[in-house]
Design brief:
Elements lengths: L2 E2 L4 E4 L2 E8 L2 E8 H7 L9 H21 L6 E3 L1 H5 L3
Parallel strand pairs: 4-5
Antiparallel strand pairs: 1-2, 2-3, 3-4
């Protein structure tokens, strides 16, 4: 079952869908528990993706926008290697 939020994200079975402001529009992006665990080890059965998103919202938004600038097309899927790259 999906958990919706007024923050513009939705978590469902290890996948978090969220929207990132890009000018006057929003870009849809996805983040998986596996990608977070591969890099941060913080996301586990005790920490939800939604909590991780809330703690790292600005970093995740910046990564999505960098991927768009590099030519990615929406929806943007964040991979473990994206989370390893320093801003």
């Amino acid at each position: 079952m999906a958990v919706a939020s007024s923050d513009g994200f939705q978590e469902c079975k290890g996948v978090l869908r969220f929207r990132v402001p890009n000018g006057s529009e929003y870009v849809e992006a996805f983040l998986t528990t596996a990608a977070c665990e591969a890099v941060h080890r913080k996301v586990s059965c005790t920490t939800s993706l939604a909590d991780f998103y809330r703690e790292h919202r600005s970093m995740l938004n910046e990564i999505v926008l960098r991927k768009l600038d590099a030519g990615a097309r929406p929806p943007v899927v964040l991979m473990a290697r994206d989370l390893e790259t320093p801003p």
